């Protein structure tokens, strides 16, 4: 692109896109160079980036929540860009978007060949995955898709703990995790195209900060039974009320009336979890709620959720949640108005 042109960043939108991500990106990226000057001197500066909402066609459509989107251009109108952001989309957590967005996928591959940086937010990573460009790379996506992603995209190393994955920047590919990580991506792109100073200015104006702790503190269990296994479904109902019992996997195996190896195989096939891992996730989820909503000490919470050894509980909690119980409590208790 000509040097005297402002960097062009295209926001790829679909009818499944969330308006919070699409218009949040449009607002923040479009403000760079103009709003900070206006807010600090009273004189607006020049916008440093050109931001276009791009879709399959220029025809207006309604995105998630019935919010109107009027694209600036259709994909056939854009032949080059400095960067493309694939916005998130509402899609089932148990099925990939196969057979959808074919025109958008072909356009993304063309843009990549023409040296655009390709980026995605949240479930937008699934569209990038469908291009094949993520094969052999590490990538981030929303934590809720972790089981489906590992099953259907085995050539990609999915980092569910990652908020903004920059491991493939040398390949001109960047993926952001959950929905609000569009903010991390926006600040990164501003720094790249306009300089760190403008990224800091933008952060100051919009009160943006990075998700430095990653996604693990925010992640939760995905509980659904695949293949309609009624026996495993019954076990899941039981363990949901009895996760803090002693030897929970043995109890479930007996309840199912199966040999241990058969039970383990069917449990994994039905849930995407090994049985012990499932119990651990249930216990950690319960502990998260107690830490955020009550002032009970950590040792008592450990026993309540099924761990007699508080040290082992703390170690497991840190591995699953990315934070120690004390730090987790400090991070989330304030949200619900509980003081430690």
Describe the structure in your own words.
By secondary structure, the protein is an alpha/beta fold. The chain has helices at residues 19-31, 35-41, 102-113, 124-131, 146-152, 182-194, 196-206, 230-242, 248-256, 260-271, 275-293, 298-304, 310-321, 325-333; strands at residues 8-12, 50-55, 61-63, 67-69, 73-74, 83-86, 117-121, 138-139, 157-158, 164-165, 173-176. α3 packs across α4 (124-131), α8 runs antiparallel to α9 and α11 (275-293) packs across α14. It is globular.
Brief overview:
By secondary structure, this protein is α/β, with parallel strands linked by helices. The protein contains 14 helices and 11 strands.
- DSSP helix count? 14
User: Helix coverage percent of residues?
Assistant: 40-55%
Strand order of the largest sheet: 5-2-1-6-7-11-10
Rg (CA only):
23 Å
Q: Strand share of the residues?
A: 5-15%
Q: What are the segments in which pLDDT stays under 50 over at least 5 consecutive residues?
A: none
Task: Report how far the terminal alpha carbons are from each other.
Answer: 55 Å
Major beta sheet summary: 7 strands, mixed
State the total count of DSSP E strands.
Answer: 11
Structural class by sheet pairing and helices: alpha/beta
Q: Give the H and E element order.
A: EHHEEEEEHEHEHEEEHHHHHHHHH
Mean pLDDT: 93
Cα shape: globular
Main attributes of the structure:
340 residues; alpha/beta; two-stranded antiparallel sheet; 14 helices; globular
């Amino acid at each position: 692109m000509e040097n005297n042109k402002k960097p062009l960043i295209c926001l790829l939108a679909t009818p499944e896109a969330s308006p919070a991500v699409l218009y949040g990106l449009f607002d923040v990226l479009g403000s760079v160079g103009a709003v900070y000057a206006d807010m600090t001197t009273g004189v607006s500066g020049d916008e440093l980036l050109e931001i276009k909402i791009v879709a399959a066609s220029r025809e207006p459509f309604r995105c998630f929540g019935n919010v109107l989107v009027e694209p600036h251009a259709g994909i056939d109108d854009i032949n080059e860009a400095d960067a493309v952001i694939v916005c998130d989309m509402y899609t089932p957590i148990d099925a990939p978007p196969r057979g959808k967005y074919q025109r958008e996928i072909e356009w993304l591959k063309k843009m990549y060949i023409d040296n655009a940086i390709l980026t995605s937010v949240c479930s937008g990573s699934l569209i990038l995955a469908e291009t094949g460009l993520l094969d052999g790379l590490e990538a981030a996506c929303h934590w809720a898709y972790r089981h489906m992603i590992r099953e259907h995209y085995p050539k990609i190393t999915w980092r569910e703990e990652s908020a903004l994955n920059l491991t493939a920047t040398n390949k001109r590919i960047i993926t952001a995790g959950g929905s609000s990580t569009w903010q991390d991506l926006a600040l990164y792109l501003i720094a790249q195209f306009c300089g760190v100073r403008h990224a800091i200015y933008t952060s100051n104006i919009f009160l943006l900060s990075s998700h430095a702790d990653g996604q693990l503190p925010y992640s939760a269990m995905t509980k659904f039974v695949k293949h309609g296994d009624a026996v495993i479904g019954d076990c899941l109902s039981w363990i949901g009320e009895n996760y803090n019992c002693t030897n929970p996997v043995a109890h479930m195996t007996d309840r199912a009336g199966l040999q241990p190896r058969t039970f383990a195989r069917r449990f994994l096939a039905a849930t995407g979890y090994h049985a012990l891992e499932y119990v651990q996730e249930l216990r950690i989820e319960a502990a998260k709620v107690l830490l955020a909503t009550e002032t009970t000490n950590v040792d008592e919470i450990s026993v309540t959720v099924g761990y007699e050894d508080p040290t082992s509980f703390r170690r497991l909690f840190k591995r699953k949640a990315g934070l120690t119980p004390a730090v987790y409590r400090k991070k989330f208790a304030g949200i619900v108005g509980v003081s430690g």
